[in-house]
Amino acid sequence: MRARCGADTAAMTAIETIEIRGATIAIKAAAPRMTLADYTAPAGFPGPPLHVHPGFDEMFYVLDGALSMRLSDEVLELGPGDCAYVDGAVPHTFANPTAAPVRFLVGCAPGGFEDYFRALAAGDEDAIAAVNERFGVEYLPSP
Q: Which of 88, 131, 81, 93 has the alpha carbon at shortest distance from 109?
């Protein structure tokens, strides 16, 4: 059943699964104002480099396992039922330093960043650069 939030709501895209560097990202919903993904990161997953993206914010909600998040100078250890809001302009990253997979939901607002995951999986450097430019993604040196 497809949820409707109002008469002007765009139809959500169908579920799509993307495999990247051992992680599985299932796009559950994608619309201009929000993307929702079910993300499974394998044991020892290093995550992305420290970065910012002022073009969108994120919300992480852990379903199973443990997720380590760095938000500026603060490190959070999230377990099942824990969530973290990430202002895209704040330097951040996440990782799974444990010996077991972690599964979490990540919501991005506005939507559109799922295009990055598609481009990364395809190895399309031009598409990656275009998405990064659209959202202001900048990779930062590690602390």
A: 88
* Ordered structural domains, the chain, with CATH: 17-137 (2.60.120.10)
For 81-131, what is each residue's pLDDT tens digit? Answer: 999 999 999 999 999 999 999 999 999 999 999 999 999 999 999 999 999
> Cis bond leading into 110, ω under 30°?
yes
Give the span between the Cα atoms of 73 and 102, in whole angstroms.
23
Radius of gyration, alpha carbons of the chain: 15
Question: Which pTM value belongs to this model?
Answer: 0.88
Cα–Cα distance between 119 and 80 in angstroms, integer? 30
Phi, psi at residue 122, to the nearest 5°? -85, -10
First to last CA, the chain: 45
pLDDT digits (tens, 9 = 90+) for 10-24: 444 448 999 999 999
